[in-house]
Amino acid sequence: MATNVQDSDVRPGPNRYISTPGVATIVPSYLEDYVHPVIITGELSAQAFLDYTGSSEFFAPALRYDGSSSERNARELAEQARARRRRDRGDRRGQAF
């Protein structure tokens, strides 16, 4: 699925709507073009998704917002995502391929 993904892409919400039974089970295919996808979700929506799909964890790193809808929390989550990306890059640099 080629989507012309750019490094600067930010999808700030559910801006792709698909009305097909069971679509939640194929969400990973929509993220294939992204190198470091991060899911930002709330506790209740995360649990609802995992219950629906029967999974015990997400297919990409998932960060939970604090429910405040604040700029402070948005910045905290962005920094957590950056730190995870830096850590993931560092983990792979020392590995032989």
What does this structure look like?
The protein contains three helices and two strands, in the order αβαβα. The protein is globular, with a radius of gyration of 15 Å. A two-stranded parallel ribbon has the order 1-2. It has one domain (23-90). The protein is 39% helix and 6% strand. The mean pLDDT is 81.
Distance between the termini: 25 Å
Return the average pLDDT rounded to an integer.
Answer: 81
Number of helices: 3
Q: Report on the biggest sheet.
A: 2 strands, parallel
Proportion of residues in extended strands: 5-15%
Neighbour order of strands in the largest sheet: 1-2
- Round the Cα radius of gyration to an integer and report it: 15 Å
How many runs of DSSP E, i.e. beta strands?
Answer: 2
Uncertain parts: none
- The chain-level structural class is mainly alpha
Tally the structural domains.
1
Report the principal-axis shape. Answer: globular
